UniProtKB/TrEMBL annotation:
Species this protein is from: Oceanobacillus longus
Protein name listed in UniProt: Catalase
Top-level taxon: Bacteria
Family matches, as InterPro entries: Catalase, Catalase_AS, Catalase_clade2, Catalase_clade2_helical, Catalase_core, Catalase_haem_BS, Catalase_immune_responsive, Catalase_large_C
Protein task: Decomposes hydrogen peroxide into water and oxygen; serves to protect cells from the toxic effects of hydrogen peroxide.
Membrane-crossing residue ranges in chain numbering: none
Pfam families in UniProt: Catalase, Catalase-rel, Catalase_C
Cofactor(s) recorded in Swiss-Prot or TrEMBL: heme
């Protein structure tokens, strides 16, 4: 019997052998066998022109990529969403005719989906990764989708290379390892051999890619779009979301531990905040450049690997988004929502950014396979609030029941309806940009500077942020097996900052580059999280407490913390009621088994019976870990003993004292600072 199985297995192997292909050393072709002359650039009308529909190689490559995974999203699979509203502060009539940006005080319903990029739907949430920040505005003129990230730039300049990027960062296909991580050979091999990634990598290795919360990260439209007003005048525009709670991040060690302690950390944080009525708020800002100023900068404003420094092009705050309702069903809403950068309204148009041009094709193509056909727009979460009428019919999952015999344009049976609308009736008219040039696969020379803004980012970082970037480089490259890849990357980033590259080389035990560096001395304070808003609202405070605590005083502090907008949660050695002096009780929501310091923003040690040695030991570990992650720590009454025993008294960000009012003010100020990076951590 076993012999028969072996024969069958060999037979099957022979059948499969003809399908096994080793691509190494071969010439690239299309799926039809046509040899490819260029695989870096999409076909354009001139080097700065739009991508052309006839680019069959790009369409084949992108179509295949879009359909590689079913049913979850290929990228941004792990996501979470919420409903809300957008309120306009200031009319943008001067720049755009988009109706939802005309009347101050007007409100537009929105749906937002946050996500990681690289991991599968079941991956953890606090991995080092770019975060998606996609917003659907349900306007009276139709849906407008602002499909962005929490990083303002991207890895590549042309959509032709997007499948290559994602193939490189996804788990390596021969062993499907690692999940939701960029710390492996294929990703860094891609980086070293595609140096346009340099600027994005600096952001990717910064604290921005391990956010504390979806509520505490910025959002960016990434691309350069165009505002068009009633007179047909255009302006270049970039979009920004700025969180009212400031921009804050996790510590890397903390992020890794959270992945094990609570892999749903970010979605749980968003869900609970909305359920508690602590509605996340993001102010909406625009950067605007006059068309005549397109070429006055030392970078190409259409290059998606470049920012417009806020000191050069200020962000004008024009509105606010408030997320105030959780979804009723995650699958029906969060998973079935379909975003598309091509979903625009009159007054918002595109530019010739070659990455944006490719995305305009890719998103619809992706939805066709993921949501089962062309009628994904009829799903409740995707339906516009305004009516829609056209001659599209049938297809998978059709919900509309169209009456009448006519389903074509130019007809007499229905008086040629549905009919088109003139521009003055709200009909969408593309901006009439003059386009001319030879059909080429090329990139404008203005896109060739890959290192200046990477250096600008480095120059803008605080000392602690620079240390984190060096550590991140050392961790990520330290996971690579190939020394040659480590060396290539270090040599590449010597062009950004020589000292940084040399420190990374020393950590990896490879040859330190001797030459490199950059002449760029400019910095942008807006890029550093050290300059963010200091807002303690909704910060979670672990309150370590056991029986015998000082009843009235501790209860007063807990009440005051709550009244100041913080969220104290009781952690004890058992669940249930914890009794203090004067018979005062509080209820423990967590034990040391179900909670951990990494799940909180700060720790308050109220303690209790000093003879409870088990509690004392657990609380000491809890506090030590929080201290090592630079978090604020407070203690009163018997809790001070734990700080004394652990040599933490009078350390930076550690507050103690028995006068409730003084203690409270100092503790809240310490929490507002988020982290205390100058702390001497052993």
């Amino acid at each position: 019997m076993s012999k028969d199985r072996k024969v069958d297995g060999n037979s099957k192997n022979k059948q499969l052998e003809q399908f096994r292909v080793d691509d190494r050393g071969k010439k690239m072709t299309t799926n039809q066998g046509l040899k490819i002359s260029e695989d870096e650039f999409s076909l354009k009308s001139g080097v700065r022109g739009p991508t052309l529909m006839e680019d069959f190689h790009f369409r084949e490559k992108m179509t295949h990529f879009d359909h590689e995974r079913i049913p979850e999203r290929i990228v941004h699979a792990r996501g979470y969403g919420a409903h809300g509203e957008f309120e306009l502060y200031e009319s943008m009539e001067k720049y755009t005719k988009a109706k939802f940006l005309q009347k101050p005080g007007s409100k537009t319903p929105v749906f937002v989906r946050y996500s990681t990029v690289a991991g599968s739907k079941g991956s953890a949430e606090t991995v080092r990764d770019v975060r998606g920040f996609a917003t659907k505005f349900y306007t009276e003129e139709g849906n407008y989708d602002l499909v962005g990230n929490n990083i303002p730039v991207f890895f590549i300049q042309d959509a032709m290379k997007f499948p290559d990027l994602i193939h490189a960062v996804k788990p390596e296909p021969h062993n499907e390892i690692p999940q939701a991580a960029s710390a492996h050979d294929t990703f860094w091999d891609f980086v070293a051999n595609n140096q346009e990634t340099a600027h994005m990598i600096m952001w990717h290795l910064s604290d921005r890619t391990i956010p504390r919360s979806f509520r505490m990260m910025e959002g960016f439209g990434v691309h350069t779009f165009r505002f068009v007003n009633e007179n047909g005048n255009g302006h270049f525009v970039k979009f920004h979301w700025k969180p009212k709670l400031g921009v804050h991040s996790l510590v890397w060690d903390e992020a890794q531990k959270i992945n094990g302690k609570d892999p749903d950390f970010h979605r749980k944080d968003l869900y609970k905040a909305i359920e508690n009525g602590d509605y996340p708020e993001f102010e909406f800002g625009v950067q605007i450049i006059d068309e005549e100023d397109e070429f006055k900068f030392d970078f190409d404003i259409l290059d998606p690997t470049k920012i417009w420094p806020e000191e050069d092009v200020p962000v004008k705050i024009i509105g606010k988004m408030t997320l105030n309702r959780n979804v009723d069903n995650v699958f029906a809403e969060t998973e079935q929502v379909a975003f598309h950068p091509g979903s625009v309204v009159p007054g918002i148009d595109f530019t010739n950014d070659p990455l944006l041009q490719g995305r305009l094709f890719s998103y619809t193509d992706t939805q066709l396979i993921r949501l089962g056909g062309p009628n994904f727009h009829e799903l409740p979460i995707n339906r516009p609030v305004c009516p829609f009428h056209n001659n599209q019919r049938d297809g998978y999952s059709r919900q509309t029941i169209n009456k009448g015999p006519v389903s074509y344009h130019n007809n007499s049976l229905a008086s040629n309806t549905p009919e088109t609308s003139r521009e003055d009736e709200g009909g969408y008219v593309h901006y009439q940009e003059k386009v001319e040039g030879r059909k080429v696969r090329a990139r404008s020379d203005s896109f060739l500077d890959h290192f200046s803004q990477a250096t600008l980012f480095w120059n803008s970082m605080s000392t602690s942020e620079k240390e984190h970037i060096i550590d991140a480089f050392s961790f990520e490259l330290g996971k690579c097996k190939e020394k040659s890849i480590q060396q290539q990357v270090v040599d590449m980033f010597a062009n950004v900052n020589l000292e940084m590259a040399q420190q990374v080389a020393a950590n990896l035990g490879i040859t330190a580059p001797e030459h490199g560096g950059s002449s760029v001395t400019k910095s942008s304070p807006a890029l550093s999280q050290e300059n963010t808003r200091k807002n303690p609202d909704t910060r979670k405070v672990a309150v370590l407490i056991t029986d015998g605590y000082s009843g009235k005083e501790v209860h007063s502090i807990l009440t005051d913390l709550d009244s100041k907008g913080l969220q104290p949660e009781i952690v004890s050695d058992k669940l249930g009621m914890v009794t203090g002096t004067e018979g005062i009780q509080v209820e423990a929501q967590h034990t040391f088994l179900t909670a951990d310091s990494v799940l909180f923003d700060a720790v308050y040690v109220a303690t209790g019976d000093a003879s409870n040695q088990k509690f004392f030991e657990k609380a000491s570990y809890f506090v030590q870990e929080a201290f090592s992650h630079f978090k604020p720590i407070g203690a009163t009454h018997d809790g001070v003993k734990i700080l004394q025993e652990n040599n933490l008294l009078n350390r930076l960000g550690v507050v103690s004292g028995d006068t409730p009012e003084i203690f409270l003010n100092e503790f809240i100020e310490a929490i507002s600072d988020h982290r205390h990076w100058d702390r001497d951590v052993i």
